[in-house]
Specification:
Length: 165
């Protein structure tokens, strides 16, 4: 069954988990453009994406804005509680949600959703909690692979790809 909402962590999933600092103290993050296609594929099917991160980063908000992701939740301390609130607003349950996360602050939500995943470079104790572990590392297309896995499992990938070929 296709999820009614896809939630994603950012650091360690859409990024390599590193934070880059300039001499002036500016923080930079590296995003893979490959992951943007995952958002586009979901949009083609009418499935919303929500970003949920513990960081309070305007860089994440800028990436969300560029990809037209309206549900971008920054500085989230308890992702499970926030996800429940979002589900209630949308009239869905956590069983209708797919979530990809990579670390300790994601485990409770990973355990609660209908379909969960983590990048392959996630700690083993997190990988043991998920339904799917990507081949791609975080920051190198892990989110897109997660989305494509969902679409393959629902016989929808070729349908979506044909819209772009």
């Amino acid at each position: 069954m296709l999820p009614k909402l896809v939630i994603t962590d950012i650091d360690g999933v859409w990024t390599d988990g590193g934070m880059y600092y300039s001499a002036e103290g500016d923080i930079m993050k590296r995003f893979s453009v490959k992951d943007g296609w995952g958002v586009i594929f979901l949009r083609e099917l009418g499935i919303p994406v929500a970003i949920m991160t513990g960081e309070n980063s305007q860089l994440v908000q800028k990436r969300a804005d560029k990809l037209k992701i309206s549900r971008c939740y920054l500085h989230v301390g308890d992702k499970l509680t926030k996800a429940k609130e979002v589900c209630e607003e949308m009239g869905i349950t956590l069983a209708d949600v797919a979530f990809i996360g990579d670390d300790l602050n994601d485990i409770h939500l990973l355990r609660a959703v209908g379909f969960s995943a983590s990048p392959c470079n996630t700690p083993d104790y997190v990988k043991r909690e998920v339904n799917y572990v990507t081949v791609a590392h975080g920051g190198f297309g892990a989110f897109r692979e997660f989305v494509e896995k969902i679409l393959v499992d629902n016989d929808m990938l070729e349908t979506v790809l044909q819209k772009f070929m």
